[in-house]
């Protein structure tokens, strides 16, 4: 439970105009992108994959993160850094598609 709390806390601190909500239970976490964006969860999942982080796009505007239960805090912070960079890429893509 502790690692899930850390991951959710770190994700909620990401400042992006595209984030609608971060929610989850334990390490099962969803990050929802605003529906009025010109990009969606599939775009974001592909950007994260290109940076080495696997996620699953669900319900068009949400990505699902399900890290292994044995993840440690430094690995969570590494994933959060990748997600931050992914949101910067997504913001650029959203601007290009506008």
Task: Please describe what this structure looks like.
The protein has one domain (2-97): Aspartate Aminotransferase, domain 1 (Alpha-Beta Complex). The protein is globular. The longest helix has 25 residues, at 73-97. It has 98 residues and is of the alpha+beta class. Strands 1-2-4-3 form a four-stranded antiparallel beta sheet, covered by helices on one side. The protein is built from three helices and four strands; from the N terminus they run αββαββα. The protein has helices at 2-12, 41-50, 73-97, and strands spanning 19-25, 28-33, 56-58, 62-65. The termini are far apart. The mean pLDDT is 97. A hairpin with a 3-residue loop joins β3 and β4 (62-65).
Oligomer: single chain
User: Helix proportion of residues, in percent?
Assistant: 40-55%
CATH superfamily annotation: Aspartate Aminotransferase, domain 1
**CATH architecture assignment name:** Alpha-Beta Complex
Distance between the termini: 39 Å
Strand order of the main beta sheet, please? 1-2-4-3
Binned strand content: 15-25%
| Major sheet size, sense and barrel closure | 4 strands, antiparallel
Q: Note the total helix count.
A: 3
Structural class: alpha+beta
The CATH topology annotation reads as Aspartate Aminotransferase, domain 1
Overall radius of gyration = 13 Å
Q: Provide the CATH top-level class.
A: Alpha Beta
- Pick out the low-confidence regions: none
The domain tally reads 1
Q: Count of DSSP E strands?
A: 4
